[in-house]
Amino acid sequence: MGDQPGNFENKSGEAVYRQSGLGERGLIFRMPEESVYIYWDTAPFEADKSESNSTAYTPKTYTTVQNSDEIAIQITEG
User: Fold this and answer.
1) Does residue 53 have a pLDDT over 60?
2) What distance in Å separates the CA atoms of residue 32 and residue 27, rounded to the nearest whole number?
3) pLDDT above 60: residue 51
4) pTM of the entire predicted model
5) Are 60 and 76 in contact (CB under 8 A)?
6) CA-to-CA distance for 55 and 29, rounded, in angstroms?
7) pLDDT bracket for residue 69 (50, 70, 90)
């Protein structure tokens, strides 16, 4: 953590690391209990509208800038 690029701290003081691995497709954030994959283009993951699939959804993401060093992200089912 500290001043290293890609290393962050969550509000509980735990380490969060930004990792490569998706190339130009997006980013990965590794946290103590979970990982978050952020894709710039979600089209490959969208459900086929012609099929009936009750488990498919499009997540909605809300980002709030708290200050110059902190953002809050909320992801909910659409």
Assistant:
1) no
2) 17
3) no
4) 0.52
5) yes
6) 24
7) confident
As a residue count, the chain comes to: 78
From the list 2, 14, 11, the residue with the least C-alpha distance to 70 is 11
If DSSP states are collapsed to H, E and C, what string results for the chain?
A: CCCCCCEEECCCCCEEEEECCCHHHEEEEECCCCEEEEECCCHHHCCCCCCCCCCCCCCEEEEEEEECCEEEEEEECC
Distance, in Å, from the CA atom of 23 to the CA atom of 29, rounded to the nearest integer, reads 13
Token pair belonging to 64: 């709030």
Q: Provide mean pLDDT across the span 8-15.
A: 86
The residue type of 16 is V
Q: What is the pLDDT of residue 3?
A: 62
